[in-house]
Amino acid sequence: KDSKRKEASIVSFTRLKKGQVPDPQVAYPERSYGSAAQALAARYPDDTYPNLKQLLGLPLEGSTVFQNYRARYPALQASKDELRDTIAFKSPSLGESHRPFAIEELLAMVIKNTVENAQIMAGKAHKIRSAVFTVPAFYTIEEKAALELAADLARIKVLGVVSDGLAVGIN
User: Fold this and answer.
1) Are 11 and 31 in contact (CB under 8 A)?
2) Is there a contact between 47 and 92 (Cβ–Cβ < 8 Å)?
3) What is the pTM of this model?
4) DSSP alpha helix (H) spans, 8-125
């Protein structure tokens, strides 16, 4: 488990053992987050998705950020998300019939896990339903909208999106 203040933004899927058939009733294979997912990265480089926030709102083609990401993580199977015209990743754990995960869907999994961890720390008396997100000052409207979509998919109400500099000033 990571420290109580920071957790690596990474999700990894654990593959089924050889001979096991995926259960159609189960939506996803087992997921790991943070340092547990980082530990699986060497074993499953094609099913571990780190540093997703830098890909928010970017198209598959023509982005130098994505080209650098692809060079750093060559095992990941990228494709185009037809709904949003952005980047998506195909998970080998789910087989050929499953559609690729959009960046927003993978980030929603990370956000949901972070909220669950925060809920544990807050205790049963408090229910976390909303959050304020901080983003770098250079985030575009598309990146902010993609972050809000990821939060919505994680069922978190976005109270605000503020720049990192503003957040430091408020703190």
Assistant:
1) yes
2) yes
3) 0.83
4) 34-40, 64-72, 103-122
